Each structure stands twice: as C-alpha cells, then as structure tokens.
Amino acid sequence: MENERYRIITYGLKQEEIDVVKENLPKKEYEVLEYDTVSDLLAHNAAIYIICTDVLDEDEKMFFFSFYEEIDGCTDETVF
C-alpha cells in the first residue's frame, strides 16, 4: 500500500500485541508494518506509530525524542 494515511508502524511490540493492533484496525485499508530500527521509524511516514519505549536504549530514546522536539509538533502523525 502506497498511502501512508493508512499505515500503522509498530516498534518493539510482542507478536500478541501486534495481532491485537491488526484485529482492531480503524478501516480495512490500513496496513501494519513492524520495524526493528529506530532510524527506520523516522524515515517512513505513517498515520500512527505504536512504540514500546521499554525496548529503546537511552541513545535511541534521545534520538527519537530529539527528532520530535526539532520538528516542534509539525506533523500529522500520532505516536503512542
């Protein structure tokens, strides 16, 4: 699917949690992608990001949160 408006990206979720996300999609057009690199999260657009911050090390947390501080909320995406 090419349209990032219907893309949900997950990071650090267990398979059972990903299954719950897939079972509760807001529309059938949504796709769920599982990423395993923090930099990939920032390189791809999505409507929703669901991130388990417990799996991030301190450098990854700082990298991720500094990105959102830098763009100062100029985004249409939702991050959980």
Give a written overview of the molecule.
The chain has 80 residues and is of the alpha/beta class. The protein contains three helices and four strands; from the N terminus they run βαβαβαβ. It has helices at 15-23, 38-43, 58-71, and strands at residues 7-11, 31-35, 48-51, 78-79. It has a four-stranded parallel beta sheet. β1 (7-11), α1 (15-23) and β2 (31-35) form a beta-alpha-beta unit.
Order of helices and strands: EHEHEHE
Strand order of the largest sheet: 2-1-3-4
Largest sheet: 4 strands, parallel
**Helix-and-strand structural type:** alpha/beta
Summarize the structure.
With 80 residues, the protein is of the alpha/beta class. It is 36% helix and 20% strand. The protein is built from three helices and four strands; from the N terminus they run E-H-E-H-E-H-E.
Notable traits:
about 80 residues; alpha/beta; about 35% helix
Give the helix/strand layout:
Layout: E1 7-11, H1 15-23, E2 31-35, H2 38-43, E3 48-51, H3 58-71, E4 78-79
Parallel strand pairs: 1-2, 1-3, 3-4
